[in-house]
Amino acid sequence: MAKTLKVVYTVILLVSLFLLLIAATKPCQSDKDCKKFACRKPKVPKCINGFCKCVR
């Protein structure tokens, strides 16, 4: 039973990380497209090479 729970928790963790990575890059054309992109302060979202990224 304990091994099953460990496997389930590991799968949940890996799927969560995968979804986080997908959400971390959003395609954009300009900085206006990145307004809803979440960044921790003092960083702000900017469109760099066609993707929203957090920069200072």
From TrEMBL:
Domain Late nodulin, first and last residues per copy:
1-53
* GO MF: metal ion binding
Q: Reply yes or no: does the keyword Signal apply.
A: yes
**Which organism does this sequence originate in?**
Cicer arietinum (Chickpea)
Cystine pairs annotated here are C28-C34, C28-C47, C34-C52, C39-C54, C47-C52
Q: Which domain of life is it from?
A: Eukaryota
Keywords tagged on the record: Signal
Write out the coiled-coil annotation as residue ranges.
Answer: none
The top of its lineage is:
Eukaryota, Viridiplantae, Streptophyta, Embryophyta, Tracheophyta
This chain belongs to which protein, by name? Nodule cysteine-rich protein 13
Instruction: State whether keyword Isomerase applies.
Output: no
Would you indicate the residue range of the signal peptide? 1-30
